[in-house]
Amino acid sequence: MLNHISVEDLSLNRFHWLLTLRSGGGSFIDGYVLSIIGIAMTKVSPALGLNAFWEGLIAASALIGIFFGGFIGGVLTDRLGRRILYFVGPTLFVVCSLAQYWVQSGEVLFALRFLNGIAVGIEYPVATAFLVEFLPKKYRGPCLATLTILWFAGATSAYLIGEAILHLGGPDAWRLTLASAAIIGALLFIVRLGTPESPRWLISKGQPDKAEAIIRRVYGADFGLQNLPPLPENSRLSLRDLLHSGYGKRMAFVSIFWTCSVIPVFAVYAFAPKVLEALHLSGNRAAYGSVAITLLFVVGCIIATRLVNTLGRRRLLLHSFLWSGLALLLLGVQREGDSLLVLVMFCAYALFIGGAQVLQLVYPNEIFPTEIRAAAVGIGTSMSRIGAAAGTWLVPLSLHSLGIANTMYIAAGITFFGLMVSWFLAPETAARSLEDAASLHEQHTRPRAAERLAKNTAWKPH
User: Fold this and answer.
1) Which of 190, 355, 457, 460 has the most Cβ atoms closer than 10 angstroms to its Cβ?
2) Quick one: which of 46, 24, 6, 286 has its CA closest to 144?
3) What span, in angstroms and rounded, lies between the C-alpha atoms of 176 and 277?
4) Is pTM, for the whole model, over 0.70?
């Protein structure tokens, strides 16, 4: 006998955990691929005879690829389905990473790294859309936030594995270092085999029979279309809907808050030693400071993952921007102050920005409907990479021409701008079904509902 329990109100089952692993593996390899070039570059440059121009271009190649991959991947995921695009990224990771073992020129390495960047860009919309369209509402935030933590895990693994290969290998060890991502890509491809299409996407394409078969397979024979929350009528949306009316405003919110949260992060993360040196931390203190900042980025994301339901999306975002912006502002004010205080402010920034970091994947997946969800994530990814590239490129120039104080003031200004935009545009989605959160009704905050959800359905790992 069929029941009428919404799939949004169920607990996690084996399929949900497996899907989280499948999507989280994409975030892990993203962090690995983007970080491994930094380990190998000291050996790549002399081996291939690279000048400063090609060194910079190869370092930025993946970010350029992400810009195109995010947009293309988002559009194709909405048009062709989640399942097809789910295997494009792992395939590109395997092929392009293996090909780097035999690379003989900077131009070819740039092209391969660019394609790897496209694969990373594709992963953002397809993996997160897949995950959010299956998860019960009380687990959406924590599971999506976990993907950010896995990105840092992949980046850390790249440093550990890369350094080990370079120390144990011979003169061509850098080739093995770059090719090592192929192993992770192959494992990810295998793990994703057997993943069904998203029922919500199938329904949006007029295929309810296929959707119902998958619902029964995932949730059991007693479940069917009646267990999905009611879909909005006349929901035939297209890419153009991301540029006007209510969804245009939401797209602006996602693009702005995402960009404002990544520009200072990429700048601080990429140039922490140089920034700490400018703030008069040198020697062992600078080295230990860089390690502490990196670890606290991860800790901040872990704490934010625990708070994403308890505090709610909107309050978490506002607090994250407020306190991290104040930390950057104090870094500018205290540039000549005690070195320990400087290090504490840097660590505070790394800790507090975790909220905005984890919400980069939560908000765009929740506030857009199925027809344009992946495209929204893809556009947000592409726009944020422009900010990341700009931040990475401009920080050394700013340190040289404007000084450390003004550089910190600019970073604080960007963060506070993100706070202002979020104050006016950020909705609360913690207590809402996916269809309700994606509708254009009731966009304002619902703190009491979020608090009730936190008390009754606080997320705990099983």
Assistant:
1) 355
2) 24
3) 33
4) yes
